Batch of 3 targets.
Target 1
Amino acid sequence: MTSVTSLTAQVQQRLANALTATRPEADADPLLRRSDRADFQANGILALAKKAKSNPRDLATEVVGNIVTGDVIKDVEVSGPGFLNITVADRAITENLAARHADSDRLGVPLKDDAGITVVDYAQPNVAKEMHVGHLRSAVIGDALRGMLDFTGEQTIGRHHIGDWGTQFGMLIQYLFEHPGELAPPEDVDGEQAMSNLNRVYKASRAFFDADDEFKERARKRVVALQSGDKETLQLWQQFVDESKVYFYSVFEKLDMEVRDEEIVGESAYNEGMPETARLLEEMGVAVRSEGALVVFFDDIRGKDDQPVPLIVQKADGGFGYAASDLTAIRNRVVDLHATTLLYVVDVRQSLHFKMVFETARRAGWLGDDVTAHNMGYGTVLGADGKPFKTREGETVRLEDLLDEAVQRAAEVVREKAQDLTEDEIQERAAQVGIGAVKYADLSTSPNRDYKFDLDQMVSLNGDTSVYLQYAYARIQSILRKAGETKPAAHPELGLHAAERALGLHLDAFGDTVFEAAAEYAPHKLAAYLYQLASLYTSFYDKCPVLKADTSEQVENRLFLCDLTARTLHRGMALLGIRTPERL
Ligand code: ARG
């Protein structure tokens, strides 16, 4: 694997060198940007002139004299009050791209050298409950962030902090205890049956719980038995977890997302550590007793009437809750998994919880200065009416139903366009297009914003959609097939058309974009990059004939641009968790 330095980075370096040569003490940033007028524009000289009290245009001219040109940089012009317009050489563009093309796996993108370990807490449904649209975003965003981070060389460890512990299990287990055999062994059910079994048991036990005080009492005792590790109780609890996992796996499969069993580490996994967490917090004085409960207070977190809002580590009845498991999980992730970053992809409505949990862990010394903790809080999925997404009956939308509908809609689109596809192929593509559409709609919006779930828009062939990108990819594959014996090959000696340069410079920026998007946890920046890539490709294709280009060298060189565009689309989409079918 050879890593390639992007032209942006190379130009940046040359400019930095020239600035240092001109004003050694200043440590000025060239402030390089892509530009419409030339390839790049550098705006940093204005600030430097101000600092050095020189005339900016004169200073700019002086800097230009110190810029090494002739190979990468073809031309530098001073413009306006002291901007620099920079044009890179066609040859440099093609050579850089050729080096990327030769590394079909990583496209020349280097691995970062300060890689750490990021534990990503995402896709955390709750046992014995149906997954709904709220679980969609965490899964989709978390998976994309992992894809991007891994690509930069960061090591990610997934944690699916499923809700598999708590008082509600007393009721469920007691019911199962009194009505044995209502849950089938996991190997005998598929996802849908598993969920309908769980629903049935849930409803039945709930009915007993509400109507029968004696059952209620037995359910309460069952909670105590569960928490104290009673064997029989744990066995029945395990049945719920196993049955739920069958269901989760079926939904994640529909989502075309890999979930590994060893990364499903739910709240229950921290059960044993919770008393110690509480004891340590109390001993250190981080947590205090208040009305029987063990709580942590914060100066800046107050509720109504300016009353402090505490984080409850242990309830007055001795029970541990959500905060205790998260605090215990932090200890595990830092000490045992050696995490340098803890990333939580959890609904923004839980941001106060995480603020309190992180602060508590900092005070306790479990989160040191060398560990970053971040809640990537995402916004709400809205319906077409701009209100939180609900069914027509006002119920929360089941995740499976929503995915099924997306695939169905995609099938219509694929069928309409399909020329040489069999029915099986149409169904397979429909899944890739439909699920891709759902993921892309989510990922192309900044995570912290709400977005409207609008299937018509999501599967539209025009505009910023995954289908548009998938078609761009498939069209390129078809061109490459049509080229037959003529293979893509770079010809650095050829001059480039403006549309080729624009496409080429954008292709060259893939790695820089992934690094930026990963560092900022901003999948929408990668999505925007890919959309722009497809748009630049379209205008290249409009303006520059490929198979009918003037010379055979030109045909090969343009095929090479096509092929690298396809590889970059494929790689970028894969990082987001989206497929790119070869034919559509
Ligand atoms: N299971 C929770 C829910 O459905 C999300 C868990 C988030 N992760 C965490 N470490 N608290 O709301």
Target 2
Amino acid sequence: MNLKKYLDREFESGLRSLGALDAPAVVKQASKPAFGHYQANGVMGAAKKRKSNPRELAQLLLDLMEGSKELTGVAEYEIAGPGFINITLTPAFIQTELNKNAKDPRLGIPLETARKILIDYSSPNLAKEMHIGHLRSTAIGDANVRILEFLGHEVIRANHVGDWGAQFGSLLAYMDKLEQTGEALATELKDLEVFYQKASELFKTDEEFAARARQFVVLLQSGDAKCLDLWERFIKESIRHCQAIYDLLDISLTPDDVRAESAYNDVLASTIEKLEAKGLVEISDGAKCVFMDEFTGKDDKPLPAIVQKSDGGYPYMATDLAAAEYRGHNLRVDEALYFVDGRQSLHLSQLYAIASAAGFIQENQVFSHIPFGTILNKEGKPFKTRDGGAVKLADVAEEAIERALKLVSDKNPELTKDERNHIAKVIGIGALKYAELSKNRTTDYIFDWDTMLSFEGNTAPYLQYAYTRIMSIFRRAGLNSADLTAPFNLTEPAEIALATRLLQYPEAVESVVEDYQANVLCNYLFDLSQHFMTFYESCPVLKAEGDTRNSRLRLCDLSGKTLKHGLGLLGIQTVEQM
Ligand code: ARG
């Protein structure tokens, strides 16, 4: 059960009885005096609306709720400050709820009413190798996919890769040149990065080649069979590269989730016709444009969205409109969430507005942009290679694993080579993804190897290490957690604090998808680990006896399970030892 929502309901019914439910109760977790303390702030809002004194209203409310306090599981209500109500739960309530959660394979997280939710994420352009900028959409999108699926929704992963357009001209011309000269195309394609470089170098330096490249753009668009064949081979190879990165990063995307831009080619003309039929299209500088009142540029001039270029070509917007119709009309999604860089926010707002005006999206369908900031280097500048190029995602992932291997080898040299390699992969990739997930997604963030791989602070290695410590307790005791069946028995403050934290797991998971902020879950897991450490330092576990020992072991067990489960929802693995 979601503890916050539970208390919210209690307060809401109290406020309703007082006829004061014109503001929601909003129960918040209080950071002080300690966890297990919730705070109802909504009383202040309700008082403000009725123009009454908040402390007086709070007192009225408490008079009303006092009688049912025990039944609710509340030890104490206390009015604080300008009119907050601090709530302390009874150990008996915490114990009962914890017993329920511990038995539940879902750790107390209920299924939500299923909705059909499409998540557009990762979506790289295939004319380039994936770079570090793709990490955000890929890692954050994937964590949200996993959480929504776990909550019971029907999730459609949509990898809207860019596989069409002028940028393919030089690549196809280069493929053609290799074939003509009898050089092995297949070998060259193995290193796509070099392939891109050679093609673009030729485009810049060789006039004849550049002309050929432009010709290939036309050939591609006109559906020339030979050109399409080359293009298909290229795209296949490029998707294979992306998939290798997804596998390495443990991203749940598969080739089946790719629905590329080119998949919409056949419907682009009719998509634009539908816009025209609705009277949405105007010609401006020879191009077909849609102007919407809400989009204005400098001097309040209306901003156009180009849907067909003057040369007849279809831009990014046209494909996105066709995709929006497919998602809204054909797939009939309840929601489509676009996990895309914040710099595309104008494009996406225009897209949703036009698609709604055209009837591609219905009013009850939610299409929204989930934006994020940019990855910066330590100097606060965009993250680039030394010569100013894009940093390849594959290189970053490999470096993460290499650096983790050094750490693991120093920490635990007696492990076998295979064990070390496995642990290094789990730690390195975990650290890389967690660095993304643990920040507020909307702000820019600084990429720093040392912080992300540190075993201290809010990092994946810290959480993974906390998990291994719990595992080692059971190893040392030669115990299997399944054998612990007696109920919890909480007495020490550190036990109660940890137990309350454990009870808050459903709340943490559900809060993520309120605004697709994975950092809420990261912060929760970090806080949980810290509470675990405090408990472990102040309450002997294996040296304790009888019921106390059993109860403490169960706290360890549930802490471990929650950590592993929470990291799993974030797409991060754990190991038994490191
Ligand atoms: N391929 C685009 C890029 O790399 C991102 C696509 C995002 N999704 C969309 N439906 N526009 O910038």
Target 3
Amino acid sequence: MKDAAPPSPSSVRWLLGRPAADAVQERVAARVAAWTGPRVPGLAVVLVGEDPPSLAYVRSKRKACRQVGIESVQINLPETASTGAVRSAVAELNRDPAVHGILVQLPLPPQVDAAQIIAAIDPAKDVDGLHPDSLGRLMSGRPGLVPCTPRGVMTLLDHYRIPVAGRRAVVLGRSALVGLPLALLLLHRDASVTVLHSKSPRPWEQTRDADIVVAAVGRPGLVEPEWIRPGATVVDVGITRSPAGLLGDVAPAVAEVAGELTPVPGGVGPMTVATLLANTVEAAGGTLDVGA
Ligand code: GUN
């Protein structure tokens, strides 16, 4: 009898963000080109201080706006700005009919009360989906603006036809920006969802049973190959800057076990920006079929 063939080397399928983000951006661009309202969709980005990563994010968001025909303006406030000063800037943008979407880049300096600022944004212009009204809508399954990164993750899964309904999903991280809204989106799509965090004992015992693992913690290399069931889908939302470049929450060796994996960089990042464009068009009253 012949020996059994050795196991074939694993061939992870990389879930690249660029093709999925381009598909969203093409739809957004077509919708903006066909715009018949008095003003094309407009986005205002509020930047407090000069945090280098925030400057880079804002640049890439405004560049993407230009590519699809969305008007964008940037409001710069000094690092020392008070909560009142940021609130006033937001109030002015709430009144501006040329502004359909408002994004206050996070993190804000410590003297600024971020919760107060987010609550001051007109919910109709809340393209970040972080206003309590938007999060309440998401929780109760009513239509509303959905946070960009979680919605982008769902669009990415759909683009690569990863089934969600009836599957076990583990979300690592419970932030209002990513983990919590993503858990709700997965739940609304009939996944069985577990949310784990820094106080969860032996997280690997739960990730090992999951069909879909999403890491959104910000701890480089946290998810090791032993945490992953062979063939599972792994989405890496973590981005940590290091001298070696951008690092995800998922250790590189997970590529030898996972069935599908998002790279860092080039995975979820482009989806966040593309979803911001989609949210801006929707806030301006345009309908889009971008899924999720
Ligand atoms: N900082 C990092 N990610 C985000 C985001 O999605 N929205 C905002 N406003 N700030 C961020």
